[in-house]
């Protein structure tokens, strides 16, 4: 395999569309795929029900989202890994791309119109700061 393709997910249907695009690109490039979900806080809660006790954190929730998408994308032609990354989504994807020495970052175009364009978006942040190529997948239509 040559290189790593990074895709950011947040549990939304549009992020899943970007992930499916990333899957096909990674297969075509002979690359591996890394599914990343960002979290921006260290919030942790302890939930107790009877004698059972669970620790729930933003990091754990983000990792669960990434794992679920990675499982949906499973394909014999592709090596897939997943992780949670701390930070704002665009910044977290760029940092993950740097750490993984990624070949490509795939993001969706969900908030590239109207006010979102003025205030910034994940795609905008990634496109301007990525250490590698960026593919903006059309995800605003099924």
Automatic annotation (TrEMBL):
<dbReference type="Pfam" id="PF00582">
    <property type="entry name" value="Usp"/>
</dbReference>
<protein>
    <submittedName>
        <fullName>Universal stress family domain protein</fullName>
    </submittedName>
</protein>
<dbReference type="InterPro" id="IPR006015">
    <property type="entry name" value="Universal_stress_UspA"/>
</dbReference>
<dbReference type="InterPro" id="IPR014729">
    <property type="entry name" value="Rossmann-like_a/b/a_fold"/>
</dbReference>
<feature type="domain" description="UspA">
    <location>
        <begin position="2"/>
        <end position="138"/>
    </location>
</feature>
<comment type="similarity">
    <text>Belongs to the universal stress protein A family.</text>
</comment>
<dbReference type="InterPro" id="IPR006016">
    <property type="entry name" value="UspA"/>
</dbReference>
């Amino acid at each position: 395999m040559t290189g790593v393709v990074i895709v950011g997910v947040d549990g939304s249907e549009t992020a899943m569309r970007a992930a499916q695009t990333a899957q096909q690109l990674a297969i075509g490039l002979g690359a591996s795929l890394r599914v990343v979900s960002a979290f921006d806080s260290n919030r942790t809660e302890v939930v107790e029900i009877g004698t059972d006790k669970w620790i729930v954190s933003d990091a754990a929730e983000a990792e669960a989202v990434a794992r679920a998408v990675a499982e949906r994308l499973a394909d014999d032609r592709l090596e897939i890994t997943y992780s949670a990354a701390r930070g704002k989504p665009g910044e977290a994807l760029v940092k993950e791309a740097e750490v993984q020495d990624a070949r490509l970052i795939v993001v969706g175009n969900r908030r590239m119109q109207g006010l979102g364009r003025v205030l910034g978006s994940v795609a905008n942040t990634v496109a301007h700061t990525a250490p590698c190529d960026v593919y903006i997948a059309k995800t605003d239509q099924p």
